[in-house]
Here is the input.
Amino acid sequence: MRPQRFQDFLIDTVKNTPGTVQVRSLAEAGDSKHPFGVAVSTSDGESRWQIVGQLAEGERHEHEEQPVQGAPAAWTDAVPGDSPEGWLAAAIGRAESPEIARIDRWSVREGDTRQGITVHFHSGAKAYVRKL
Here is the structure.
């Protein structure tokens, strides 16, 4: 899933997630520095997330995207008091998209304190969602 389509998916998914007050693209939130991303407001405040994509091997931007479907990523809901990263990963996982194969949180990796998510697609593409 390319960044623009993933951003649209993320906005649609997050707006239907309990606890969401508002979600909009970074551009709508006044951020012109990052081409793709979302600003998410919950009762805990706002968090902003940049989206960067990595194409599947052999894929080119001039080619039309070829979505690949499979079993949705297995995911456990975020727990009360979890970080915005955990909340966002759980929202993506609960959507049960057949294009998403796996969701990895960065902050739970040993020695990594960054907040972010890598979304692996069945096509071989990836989306890196980094907290700004």
User: Anything to note?
Assistant: The mean pLDDT is 92. The beta strands are 20-25, 37-42, 45-54, 100-105, 116-121, 126-131. The longest strand covers residues 45-54.
